[in-house]
Request: fold
Amino acid sequence: MASGDLGGVREAVPARDWADGPGTDALLAILHRLDHVDVLMAADQVCRSWRRAAREESSLWRRITMRGHEGIARRLSRGGLACEAVRRSAGRCEAFCGEYAGDDGFLVYLSEH
Reply:
């Protein structure tokens, strides 16, 4: 028998239920690479695990950047998206950077949350 050969016997590997998606750490690594506007607008439409992470993982929303999305202003309220991003941070927002993300009312909202 060759060195390292187990004689055709394979070690049992526990089955993984991929219906639940990747692990939380892997999923957050993916979501952290996406733009926050993309996460707000589309990540929760991918699958159940992405929806849960995009809505409930406050660590994803600690540093929020919402820049360079002038095209969505015609379709959506960037101020509304900014408020939703801050809400998802669950009080853990450390930094917010956004162009035309809101008015004085948004700044008050940001300071309170």
Summary: The chain has one domain: 22-112. The chain has a mean pLDDT of 80. The two ends are 66 Å apart (CA to CA). The first strand starts at residue 63 and ends at 66.
